[in-house]
């Protein structure tokens, strides 16, 4: 927490419930040019609907984000959806004011940039390539029985023992050597039913958000979400607060999920409440800029 225990906050804005949240909002207002506003899509800026393919951004979302974006370091959408789909359902494509909007989709495995209109996916992590290359030697040395086979999943490599004469024995035999191989290349082993999958440690909204904030050199962050998948992003903001990047945890409140509201600094009423709050934020920032 900063040196100020109770920063002066404009009365147009709701006051965050925690000291860390008040510091976060104060930091955002003090230096908006270094602030990032990061938002989940479904349930946060897009109302939840029975058919997920019918989900669209709240009608006020694009206008308010377009007002905010030029005042901030960046606005980013962080979603489990494919990035291009969220961009389309959000109505972000070609929207004036959102020329620099970024959508981190598939929990950060994909990225859509408004500037190019294109989706990029980072190449498979180098650890996977190394494991792929070393795996045959490791299996041979471990005495993997006939029937052991490997499945190349692109971003992960899986070793199956189901076809071995004794699948359980083969599974146990390979557990340790594969764990060592994974560890050497910073991968984790995800055990399944007669399968050991070697893959990069979990990509989640927290990893995606942290990487984006580092990339943009963010000095503060406001993260808004509505669901359990947003807890990883909340955790990331908590960690960053400890590293002198103040942050605000915003919750798009609903009757369905309460776990997030308990952790939030600010709880508003669904996507309409999020849009309302962002509008107040834009009013305050624009008023100062003008
Ligand atoms: Mg959501």
Automatic annotation (TrEMBL):
GO process annotations (BP): trehalose biosynthetic process
Enzyme class, UniProt record, top EC level: hydrolase
Keywords: Hydrolase, Magnesium, Metal-binding
Domain of life of the organism encoding this protein: Bacteria
EC number(s) stated in the UniProt entry for this protein: 3.1.3.12
Cofactor(s) the protein requires to work: Mg(2+)
Reaction catalysis annotation: alpha,alpha-trehalose 6-phosphate + H2O = alpha,alpha-trehalose + phosphate
Pfam families named in the record: Trehalose_PPase
InterPro entries: HAD-like_sf, HAD_sf, OTSB-like, Trehalose_PPase
Pathway field: Glycan biosynthesis; trehalose biosynthesis
Keyword check for Nucleotide-binding: no
MF-aspect GO terms: metal ion binding; trehalose-phosphatase activity
Region (Disordered): 1-23
Function: Removes the phosphate from trehalose 6-phosphate to produce free trehalose.
Family the entry assigns: Belongs to the trehalose phosphatase family.
NCBIfam families: T6PP (TIGR00685)
Name of the protein this chain belongs to: Trehalose 6-phosphate phosphatase
Gene name tied to this protein: otsB
